[in-house]
Amino acid sequence: MYQEWQPGKDIRVAIWKIEEPESFFEEGTGLQSDKKSAVRRLEHLAGRFLLRYLLPGASLNQIEVSHLGKPFFRGNGPCFSISHSFPFVGVAVSGSDVGIDVQTLQEKIVKIQYKFLSPEEQALCDNHTARITLAWAAKEAAFKRYGLGAVDFIRHMPIREMQVDGTMATIKMEFLREEPAVHIHLHGGIEADFAWSVTV
Fold first, then answer.
1. Helix 22-29 and helix 38-54: axis angle, to 10°?
2. What is the torsional sign of CA 24, 30, 34, 35?
3. Alpha helices (H) along 55-198
4. pLDDT (tens digit, 9 = 90+) per residue, 125-147?
5. Model-level pTM greater than 0.85?
6. Residue 180, preceding bond cis, omega within 30 degrees?
7. DSSP 39
8. Could you give the domains of the chain?
9. Residue 92, SS3?
10. What residues contact 95, with CB distance under 8 A and at least 6 apart?
11. Per-position DSSP letters for 146-186, written without gaps between them
C-alpha cells in the first residue's frame, strides 16, 4: 500500500505500488485476467485487488463495464473508479459517482500539453511537468466521474483554479458538457514519480 486516505465524508481512496507477481493478485482476488500484456494483467488484477481491500464484502464477479469503458457493480452496488499507470494503481469508492486518475510523470507531456490544456491552463502549469500531469489527471478524473464520452478536454473541462501546496493540491473546474455548467472540486497530489486527482 502506497497511501490510503479519506478526502471526503463518503469517499475512500487508496493507491498501491505494484511490486508483487501476478500470482499474488490472482490469489487475492480469485480472478484471472485475459489481458495480453503482462503489465496490463498486473494493472487489471491489482485494481480489483485494491477495490476488494476498500470494499471487503464486494463481489468482484459482479463488475460490468459500460459501453464507454466505465466499470460498475451490477445492481445497486457502491460507486467506484479505478486508474492505473504502472506501477501505480489508484481506486476511489463512494456513495455517489466518483472519478480518480493516476499518472506517472513523464517529461514528454510538456510537448503535448496544448492538446488538452488551453493557453490559460498552460500558464497555470508554467511548463512544469508535475503540474501539467496533475492537470491531466484532474481532467481524466472528472471525465471518469461523469462518464459521458465525447468530451473536449479544453472546451468542456476548463480548469479555473489550481492550488499546489507541497505535495497536495486543490483544483476547481467547470464541466461545460452539462447545462447548466457543473462546478467540480478535486483533490490532487504530486509525488516523486506520479500525480493523482480525485473528484470530491
1. 40
2. negative
3. 109-112, 119-125, 129-146
4. 999 999 999 999 999 999 999 87
5. yes
6. yes
7. H
8. 3-95 (3.90.470.20), 102-199 (3.90.470)
9. strand
10. 10, 78, 79
11. H------TTTT--EEEEEEETTEEEEEEEETTSSSPEEEEE
